[in-house]
Amino acid sequence: MAELRITDVRKAYDRIQALSGVDLTVRSGTLVAVLGPSGAGKTTLLRCIAGFETPDAGEIRIDGRRVATRGASVPPERRRIAVVPQEGALFPHLSVLGNVTYGLGRSARRAGRAATVLELVGLAGFEGRMPHHLSGGQQQRVAVARALAPHPPVVLLDEPFNALDAALRAELRRDVRQALRADGATAVLVTHDQAEALSVAEEIAVMRDGRIVQSGPPELLYREPADPWVAGFV
Ligand code: ATP
């Protein structure tokens, strides 16, 4: 767990300005939801944090260490940031245990850590199952367990519940939130779903046209929505 600080990050693809100066701080051990409509720049922001893209300007710091600045970037493998994608994150030929321990090297504590994170996501006892024998929701739980396993400084979740039906989403949201909290993870969850952001996050950052236009606890967005897109749903 670590503090994530993003300052004035900009990124363009040809003539499309995907990020127009993003400022965002995620305090150590908290979960922030980046909420915005399609095309707001959410995925581009995650890709810059993970190191898959290099910002054109601005900087990204993790616990004070600068990992990205104008045109220069620490490679993704040296940032050790975990990403939970929308779906399909698991290695199909590896068991649940194999998936969860994949990034843990040969540490003697890997079995204990795998048991801890599987318990956190409600899948104790599922170690030997193969991914194709799990429901979509269970697969996403394994993906979260795998992300948490190596104690990454930051966990990024990109619309992680999108492929699931409504009832399952609500349950999974609650459990994933609890798992992230219990493990003390610093996490950024991207979503276009207002209800999801309001229910899952300690803080919400509303993103529009490549900028964070408002951020704060969910109550603030209820009370004083600064953006018409937010005012429309609270
Ligand atoms: P969604 O919720 O639909 O995934 P988003 O908020 O994640 O949207 P991004 O995917 O970050 O938004 O896209 C922001 C803008 O940048 C969009 O206009 C998009 O078309 C553009 N864009 C993103 N990636 C690329 C790319 N590789 N090449 C060109 N344009 C891109």
Automatic annotation (TrEMBL):
It is an enzyme of class 7 (translocase). Residues 4-234 form the ABC transporter domain. GO terms for molecular function: ABC-type ferric iron transporter activity; ABC-type quaternary ammonium compound transporting activity; ATP binding; ATP hydrolysis activity. The keyword Repressor does not apply. The keyword Ion transport applies. Keywords: ATP-binding, Cell inner membrane, Cell membrane, Ion transport, Iron, Iron transport, Membrane, Nucleotide-binding, Translocase, Transport. Transmembrane segments: none annotated. Its EC number is 7.6.2.9. GO terms for cellular component: ATP-binding cassette (ABC) transporter complex. This is ABC-type quaternary amine transporter. It comes from Streptomyces cupreus.
